[in-house]
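Hi L.,

You mentioned the student needs an example of a multi-chain input paired with its predicted structure. This one should do, with 229 residues in total across all chains.
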Amino acid sequence: AQKITQTQPGMFVQEKEAVTLDCTYDTSDPSYGLFWYKQPSSGEMIFLIYQGSYDQQNATEGRYSLNFQKARKSANLVISASQLGDSAMYFCAMRERTNTGNQFYFGTGTSLTVIP
Amino acid sequence: DGGITQSPKYLFRKEGQNVTLSCEQNLNHDAMYWYRQDPGQGLRLIYYSQIVNDFQKGDIAEGYSVSREKKESFPLTVTSAQKNPTAFYLCASSQVGRSYEQYFGPGTRLTVT
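Structure written out for the whole complex:
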């Protein structure tokens, strides 16, 4: 089974509107972490937001919020008030513990295009 | 400034040659990681290291080798055994703590012809 699933290869959003990028995950580790990264065309990976499996409240960082639904194993990213600079690839990732340390798994990404 | 450096940004090699990609960090992080990214794909873990002189295979370690002789450095060698080495390679590091957040370098784009 896929550890991280992102079912939206591409998304479009009007400037200043909000957009939700979907992510579901699969793990048996009770102490996991979920991340979202942004990758512009330059290729660098930019950390956006983190949610720990024991966190009671949804994580927020400025215009980014993570809609964490533990029972559904989903960790959707919400970007409010979209800007042209938000156009990029977005990756959902998960950290889980293994016998040899922490491993990270990434989804296949969602390409977001913000339309003026 | 603290961060991760990868060099070079672009690398070209002939098939059959080994090539080593550099990754250095001055964040004092214990853990370091190497990922491969193919066009239109997510990141796949090649190798990771939690401490000096120790490293573990990730999902796609075949055809790659690493070393971790210093905390700051985690070079990746792409050997001639790697069947499809052309890809974008990203190095990352993280510190043990609450978030286990990974910080990424700018990446090296390797082309093998």
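You could point out the following to them. The mean pLDDT of chain B is 91. The interface with chain A takes residues 31, 33, 35, 40-45, 48, 50, 56, 58, 88, 90, 92, 94, 98-104, 106-107, 109 of chain B (CB under 8 Å).

Best wishes,
N.
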